[in-house]
Write a structure and sequence with these properties.
CATH topology of the largest domain in chain B: Arc Repressor Mutant, subunit A
CATH topology of the largest domain in chain A: Arc Repressor Mutant, subunit A
CATH architecture of the largest domain in chain A: Orthogonal Bundle
CATH class of the largest domain in chain B: Mainly Alpha
CATH architecture of the largest domain in chain B: Orthogonal Bundle
CATH class of the largest domain in chain A: Mainly Alpha
Radius of gyration of chain A: 19 Å
Shape of chain A: globular
Number of domains of chain B: 3
Number of helices of chain B: 11
Oligomer: heterodimer
Shape of chain B: elongated
Radius of gyration of chain B: 25 Å
Largest sheet of chain A: none
Number of helices of chain A: 11
Number of strands of chain A: 0
Structural class of chain A: mainly alpha
CATH superfamily of the largest domain in chain B: Winged helix-like DNA-binding domain superfamily/Winged helix DNA-binding domain
Strand content of chain A: under 5%
Helix content of chain B: 25-40%
Helix content of chain A: over 70%
Largest interface: A-B, 44 and 26 residues
Number of strands of chain B: 10
Amino acid sequence: MDTDPALAARLARDVEAAFPSLVADHQDRLYTIALRLLGDRRDAEEVAQDALVRAFRAMRGYPRERVATLRLRPWLASITVNLARNRRRRHDDRQPPNQLEPMLDAGFDLAADGRSAPATTLDRRETKRELATALLTLTPAVRAAVVLRHVDGLSVAETAEALGRPEGTVKAQVFRGLRELRAALDTAPEAPTTTPSHMRAARLVPALEAIR
Amino acid sequence: MTTETFTDPRLEASLRDLRVAAPPAVGFGALVEAGLADRYAPIDTPLGRAFVAWNGRGVSWVGMADDGAAFARRFGEEVGRPIESAHAPPERLASAIRRRLDGDRRVRIPLDLRGHTPFEVMVWMKALEIPRGEVRPYGWIAAEIGRPKAVRAVGSALAHNPVPLVVPCHRVVRSDGLIGQYSMGGADAKRRVLAAEGLDTRALEAEASAGIRFTGSDTTHIVCNPTCRDARRVTPQHRVTFPSLAAARSAGYRPCLHCRPVSVAGAA
């Protein structure tokens, strides 16, 4: 994996030759950002793919010097956030956000660690499910700040750049987001000890199908 | 703002734990849209099942193969880009191809012809103008693109058509009127495609070997390529045939404005 400046330099020399490396390096994080902003896997796939394609087209239109100095991580994040915002607006016109899929998603995409005690794995799945769902209850602006800063791991400066907001605003939004997440998790119903999460999830599937 | 140094290491670790791997379709799909990789799927054609490859720029390859794997291998050798199978082409592309194969010349199908010469592309675009069920000689294409002496190069370009059927190179025949070769399975396959378009290839070849190159009407005094739709409307009692355009001209016939017959050097 290239460092971003090295990859940007290669892209400036030959976008087509270096683009597959950009895809390999960034597809997981762009998909993660889209998934955690939107809560829907299919939407996230489309947004992540579209973000990569738009980046490709943009770079082909930019002068070399501009491509060479791109800060790829925040730049690609900002394209993804914008596409996710457009997609959410379209969705909001149609239907309320689907909160079942992210719960299922968070519970089952985890490659279960066979060595850990079952209870630990369950705890971790519970946490992920609840956290993924809680993220979707944050306002979009706060959610984007938290996802870029703490899920994707951008610095405050990079998050501010990606979102086009002052650093102070980003810090405040992240602060508020973490506080609300903490509160949501603390008040979330205790993980039941009687019903394993995968069985509860199985009961959600018919409901999910009915929504589709 | 206060200097809010609210940190919650456990919560932050849990948020990092929400990272997931993208499904493979995300990255590959981006490469396809960028034209750096392709997808392929089977399509129904008059020759049976063929395969079509495409990317964000358009259709890149059409070919017959025993199976998808053989098609993908061939594509890799000829084009060199990564390729993966898909269930079917995108619906818009699939319906455009279907309509094109059914003879609708107005339907636009984007083509990805990168890596080919401008001459080849000119030849293929000209072949697209030949109506379904009609044929023209190689020399006709050469004359139409302003390279009347490049008949052999036209034949070579048509033999390398990467998108047969979509670009109807099967509608271009030898200048002596015989059917000629075809990349999708030889002369017999070419006859089958033309027959599926309603052309009587046996009659065409019989006339060609009898030395007939052009036909006209003794009421309009217009001379046509034999398969021109105008020529085929002429009733048998008014139909006249010519071995060359010169013979037609000296009999007082003028060339049809639709099929624009040309004299073909050396073959007439």
